[in-house]
Design brief:
single chain, 459 residues, mainly alpha, two-stranded antiparallel sheet, 13 helices, 2 strands, globular
């Protein structure tokens, strides 16, 4: 008895289809991870953003109070007062920059957790926050170090440009003004170009555990040929959340004006200031933190999906992911990380041929010549249609048949020849032609039917 294989249920679909993605798919699925695991992603992002905001606010207020409290012991208008005032302003600005960088480092950790979640969600896997953090922890400092390197590089570049403009302004002020305008106009496309070319550096560090130098090379290579789709996705998401932030701020502005008018109709500055701080300060900051958390999750999800799409197109990552899912659903336990296999592999460009049955007279899907199609491999001895389809066994000199014009009707079979006289003995088997000994491999004649001329070897 033969044993039949056990029934295996179909694999669960992930948040993205495992094949090269289109622009609309990347943009639409950037919100899918947030819907799939909102408690982990949105909750973690909101907690981190809130803690960062509270720490920065408290630390900045403490530094500001310590810096400006010395002014109470000095008389305004004196040189000492002006010196302390300038120093207090400088200390506050530096403290704000440092605290902002620290808050940015925490945002990078949120991005790392989101990227790891998206890589598992693409395989229909859902992990807890603890499991996600255990995968992020080994490369957390490397990711933070990359963020500080980017900030230092930008600060150094801005400092050099500002010093150069100031030096030119001391000699020729009109030239400095023109140079400043040109620098600002050139900085906009340069910033977006570098941002997209280095977009996949954090994802490469997180997923592949690459070093910073390796991640820079990998991001530059993977985005080659995918610059414009990546730019479009990031730009559209930025515009969406910018517009949402502007729309949400309008009701709070009207609320502040209405409460101020009701509570302080005479324009008393003290209650107006209190109401304005509560309405436009506290409530606005709460909504801003929520929007920032959602924006970080969505942008990080888009970055992870762009990374997966670039690797599927360039390295055939979808093949590794499909093989991983098949083995996992079959019960295999010795499974490695599919994202760390075949890193850097380069495959030949693949098409979009769709397997299936083609109706008679219709061109099959994916024939050569179709834009983006892989096509059907040509037959070794066949006639190639101008579109690329091959009819096996057809002579190249013969015209291509049209479905609307059927070929000529087959000629009637010739009459059977008279039987040989009975007095003539049959020829021995060795004397018969070789064609008569072996039946034709391409024709078949029913028993009792008259043989055609071609079967008897007639011209």
């Amino acid at each position: 008895m033969s044993a039949y294989p056990a029934w295996t249920p179909a694999s669960r679909p992930g948040i993205i289809p495992l094949h090269p993605l289109t622009f609309g798919t990347i943009l639409g699925r950037s919100f899918a991870a947030l819907r799939q695991n909102p408690r982990v992603l949105l909750g973690f992002a909101l907690i981190v953003q809130t803690l960062a905001y509270i720490v920065v606010l408290v630390a900045l207020l403490a530094v500001t109070w310590a810096a400006f409290s010395r002014l109470d012991t000095l008389r305004p208008g004196t040189d000492e007062y002006d010196t302390v005032l300038a120093g207090s302003i400088g200390i506050t600005v530096v403290a704000g920059i440092v605290l902002g960088l620290a808050a940015g480092a925490l945002s990078v950790l949120v991005q790392a957790v989101v990227v790891v979640e998206v890589t598992h969600a693409a395989l229909a896997e859902k992990l807890s926050l603890g499991a996600l953090w255990r995968q992020v922890k080994p490369i957390a400092w490397r990711l933070i170090g990359y963020s500080f390197l980017v900030i230092l590089a930008v600060a150094a570049l801005v400092t050099v440009v500002v010093l150069g403009v100031i030096g030119i302004a001391m000699v020729a002020p009109p030239a400095a003004i023109v140079l400043t305008i040109l620098v600002i106009l050139a900085a906009i496309p340069l910033t977006w170009w570098l941002m997209i070319k280095l977009l996949l550096v954090p994802a490469t560090i997180i997923v592949e555990h690459a070093t910073i130098s390796q991640a820079l090379v990998r991001s530059w290579t993977l985005t080659r040929g995918r610059f414009w789709p990546a730019l479009g996705v990031i730009l559209v998401i930025s515009v969406i959340f910018g517009a949402v932030a502007q729309v949400v701020s309008i009701p709070f502005t009207f609320l502040s004006m209405g409460l101020t008018t009701v509570v302080a109709p005479t324009g008393d500055p003290e209650p107006s200031a209190i109401i304005g701080m509560i309405a436009t300060g506290l409530l606005t900051q709460v909504v801003t933190l929520l929007l920032q958390s959602v924006a970080i999750v969505v942008q990080s999800t888009a970055t992870a999906i762009i990374y997966i799409d670039c690797r599927m197109r360039r390295e055939g990552l979808d093949l590794d992911l499909l093989a991983y899912i098949e083995r996992r659903d079959a019960g295999a336990t010795d499974l490695g990380d599919p994202y760390r296999q075949n890193v850097g592999r380069v495959i030949a460009p693949r098409g979009w041929a769709t397997p299936g049955y083609a109706a008679p007279g219709a061109l099959p899907l994916g024939y050569p010549g179709q834009p983006g199609a892989g096509g059907i491999p040509p037959h070794s001895a066949g006639y190639a249609h101008p579109t690329g389809y091959v009819m096996p066994g057809r002579s190249p000199a013969a015209p291509w048949p049209s479905p609307a014009a059927p070929g000529p009707a087959s000629a009637p079979a010739p009459a059977a020849e008279a039987p040989a006289p009975a007095s003539e003995p049959p020829a021995p088997a060795s004397a018969q032609p070789a064609a008569a000994q072996a039946p034709s491999s391409t024709t078949w004649t029913a028993p009792g039917a008259a043989a055609s001329d071609s079967d008897r070897g007639a011209p």
